[in-house]
Amino acid sequence: MSRYYCPFCSFRYQFHKTRSDGVLVCGLCGDPLIKKPLLNSKRIIGVFAASAFLTPLVIMIIFIVKDFAKEKLPNNSESLVLLIIDKSWKI
Known about the structure:
The protein is mainly alpha-helical. It has helices at residues 41-70, 77-89, and strands at residues 4-5, 16-18, 24-26, 34-35. It folds into two domains: 4-35, no CATH class; 41-89.
């Protein structure tokens, strides 16, 4: 995506040329191109809105992964035998 645009021509059909003095001009109408700002208010508001919806999802996934990592098998031998037998019957 180019940082320069012609305000008079459609964005679909724009191509840029450089004049002999180094100024970028529109290839269709010949007017000088205008530089787009990198950050504008719509982008900033969009990033905040997206992060407001995605942050709880990311936090939930992190806690679920931590919970699965903490989960340990029981230490008594009777439950271990039941787990081994239960796994062998599923095969």
